[in-house]
Give the backbone structure.
Amino acid sequence: MRRLGIADKEITTDAQGGRIHLFSDTKATAGNNSGVGTSAFDTGFGGGTGAFSDSQTLWGTATDPGKLNNYDIVILSCEGAQHPETKPQQALDHLKAYADLGGRVFLSHWHNIWVEGNTQAQKPPTEKPAVWAAQDATHPGIATFSDAGNPPSGTIFTDTIDEVNNPKGPAFASWMLNVGGSMKRDDVVLQVDTGRDTCSSVDNAKAEQWVYLNSNGMKLPQMFQFSTPNEAAEDARCGKVVFSDMHVSGGPKAGNYPTSCGTATTLSAQEKALAFMFFDISSCVGILQ
């Protein structure tokens, strides 16, 4: 957000005066790959102060509806695991309802739980959203996921922009060339250790595939988008959901925010791709072509 030019004063907690509020999944179980990132601001930061609010106050619990409806866009950054212990069925229902009412949702990597449902072993994998996740053999979901582990350390991915299955693909590809995000049309070269491959396919009748990874002859979706309510006619939809397997960076660094984000001031190739999606997700919902 800072590298897009948003002023520090606008980045605060939900109890402070900014337009962008940071939360942290502070109750995620330690030891369950507790890569939930930092949970407080640096002393002297020009925006928020102190600790972030807990993420469960954002997406809700079994007894709390949460605060999702306070926001135009909700961005959920990978926590290193699905952490279903902090995402009960009611929270999955809350996020779907928020998107169905016109909310915009950006999900990264293991936040696939909001689309796929709980597939990890911390507790019985029964929680899943309606419609978005596969319900049974005759009701497939938006996408299928292999939930594969991370690629070997040091791996550099070259992702390909999908100009065939996405009506905005050509505009996206041209924009990436114009801003220096692609040196070759349709190619997005990721930083080392930032590619993931949890998603294995997208139903092109339900979603738009934006970017895919060429892997051993397979085209694995790296980024896709769908409109909501997905079960409604296309001209009756008003929300959008983006899923991305790309990480903005390899992982959080030591320290609080923004020290944990590193010292870079320019956008990487994948950050430019994610920036396009960030701006697109806020645009009006159109009918899939």
